[in-house]
Amino acid sequence: MQKKDVAAELTIKKGNRIVQKFQLFPYDDVITIGRHYSNNIRLSDDPKISRVHAAIVRYDPVKDFHQEISKNKTTSFFIRDLGSAHGTKVGGKFVHKRLLYEGDFIRISKYTIILCQSGSNPNEAAGIPLDERYDKLISQKVYEKDTALRPLQGNKITAEFSREQEEFLSNMISGGLSADFSDRPKAFLRLLLDLMKAEQGIFGCYSDAKIIIEESSGLERETPQCSAKFIENLFKTGPKRSDAALWLPLPENYFLALFRIRPPAFNSGDLKFMSCVCDNLPVLENFEDNLYELTEWPTPMVGLAEIKKKAKIIAQAEETENNDVLILGETGTGKEVLARYIHRNSLRKEKDFKTVNCAVLTKELVHSELFGHEKGAFSGSNNKRSGAFMDADSGVLFLDEIGELPGNIQSALLTAIQQREIKPLGSDQIKKVNLRILAATEKDLERGILSETFRRALYERFTYSIILPPLRERKEDISLMVHYFLDKYSQKTRAVSRDAIECMRQYEWPGNIRELQRVIKDPKLLQKEIVYSWDLPPEIRAAKQINQSKKKIMKTLKETEKEKIMEVLEETRGNKNLTAKILGISRATLFNKFKQHAIPTDHGRNQGES
């Protein structure tokens, strides 16, 4: 993949150290973050990070709502917390769901994830996070070594931090930058006055051609000595400096100003430092509620990272040969969704995707539906029919439930796949077709081969096969899919409680993703602002309790087994052969039980082993 194909980049930092750079390509729709190995970004060394913690999701900003936000340099991504235990912060605020802006800081426990466009460098002087810049600025030795920081060498104020100032700033940074700004702007303003040796300061907003002062310190009057026109120009021209004042524009028409009434005058180093601070301030407006105008996530294939990766490789493989794909899996696992995903990533993505459900075709009509028929070929055939193979010519034909096809049609299908030739019913003419075959079934085809209900040659004719595991075998995906369906169907629901997610993880989901979708689409549930465990169907609520009871029973059985083994060992004075014989197990099994129950091998021995 060429560098130019990279749409954006995530820089992942732990403290001030960059641990990973993750490139976002145009085809990356959903990027998951968490401790579990299946995540795209795995942060496995921090217990405060949930197994599947959050997702960064691409969306298409086509609505007027998105166009308005795009003026503020929004990206084509939003972040979704997936019911994590310790939450996800953007700009110091806990969020359920929020649009992402270029340069946004996503904080997940001790990790910081910075979103930037391809080619930008978050380590450049203008974009260094405040905590990292602070660590560098307090060391004069860094100025001599780090050329990126030389423009700040003239800032003598930063070299005069007191111990109290250093501790205050460090504490503010560790708690999240905006925790002291957007939540407590007065405290943050006072901090800046102390750092910059300024006597006066204001934090305000420019709205409807008027200046609104929200916080001030040291001013004798409520309005600053400036015009509305001056503030309007500030947002067009950028930060301004005079000997006695620093003016800095902030996101969402906010601004900040610091004033000195005594020497020394502000210098260019002061302006550069304050510009760096303000560049790293988060957007003050919380867009979380507005985000429910977003439509839906790009694809439901959100929790199958390895399968998606394999499917994408298959989809983009050169079609010098006919790369036909067989998708196996239980009902409701998303076989057709995966087939469409392959189609969207293939060379034929602009062509038609034709679907045929083989399970509903009668024996009399299946040949006609697939290969077509001539007029008068059979009773009632008053018109000529082209058939699915001809309809999908140059595109993709998806044969759902291929395991239901009768034996004679399997033979004709095998010929069609091998030769890319079909013969309509009632015709002597053989027609060539150019298409890709994608097929799916919930049946066990290997068992069907043994029972001779499915042809081995047809099974082996497919170039690739993909097995979709049932939902009960990938419980880590449940929180991801729950939030996907909530975002798709609900304009109101903001979050799902951890207990509700845990109940759904404990449930077996015999209907797989289709059943999960049906549960989430319940109108009563979609009206909830927060979904709790008691909002779920009774069989799902009971699953957690049943599993907990099973674990208690198993624990009791294990404890009983351990006690019995230890009792017999004591009776036999540690004789392993005799103990195994009394228990009715082999010596090897006995030693396995020792390991399983952590029983000392010399337990019960008070004399030499026999």
Word description of this protein:
The structure is a single chain. The strands form six sheets. The protein has a six-stranded antiparallel beta sheet, with no helix packed on it. It has a five-stranded mixed beta sheet with strand order 4-3-5-6-9, with no helix packed on it. The chain folds into four domains: 3-124, Tumour Suppressor Smad4, CATH 2.60.200; 130-279, 2-Layer Sandwich (Beta-Lactamase); 305-471, Rossmann fold (3-Layer(aba) Sandwich), CATH 3.40.50; 543-597, Orthogonal Bundle (Arc Repressor Mutant, subunit A). It is built from 21 helices and 25 strands. The longest helix has 34 residues, at 538-571. The radius of gyration is 33 Å and the shape is flat. 34% of the residues lie in helices and 19% in strands. It has 610 residues and is α+β, with helices and mostly antiparallel strands.
Please outline what is shown here.
With 610 residues, this protein is α+β, with helices and mostly antiparallel strands. Helices cover 34% and strands 19% of the residues.
What attributes does this structure have?
about 600 residues; alpha+beta; Tumour Suppressor Smad4; Beta-Lactamase; Rossmann fold; 4 domains; 6-stranded antiparallel sheet; 21 helices; 25 strands
Please write out the topology:
Elements: E1 8-14, E2 17-24, E3 30-34, E4 41-42, E5 54-58, H1 64-70, E6 74-81, E7 89-90, E8 93-94, E9 97-101, E10 105-108, E11 111-117, H2 130-137, H3 140-145, H4 163-174, H5 185-195, E12 200-207, E13 210-217, H6 228-237, E14 240-241, E15 245-249, E16 254-259, H7 268-279, H8 305-315, E17 325-329, H9 335-344, E18 353-357, H10 366-371, H11 388-391, E19 396-400, H12 407-419, E20 421-422, E21 431-432, E22 436-441, H13 445-450, H14 456-461, E23 464-468, H15 478-489, E24 495-496, H16 498-506, H17 512-520, H18 523-526, E25 530-531, H19 538-571, H20 576-583, H21 587-597
Parallel strand pairs: 3-4, 17-22, 17-23, 18-19, 19-22, 24-25
Antiparallel strand pairs: 1-2, 1-11, 3-5, 5-6, 6-9, 7-8, 7-10, 10-11, 12-13, 12-16, 14-15, 15-16, 20-21
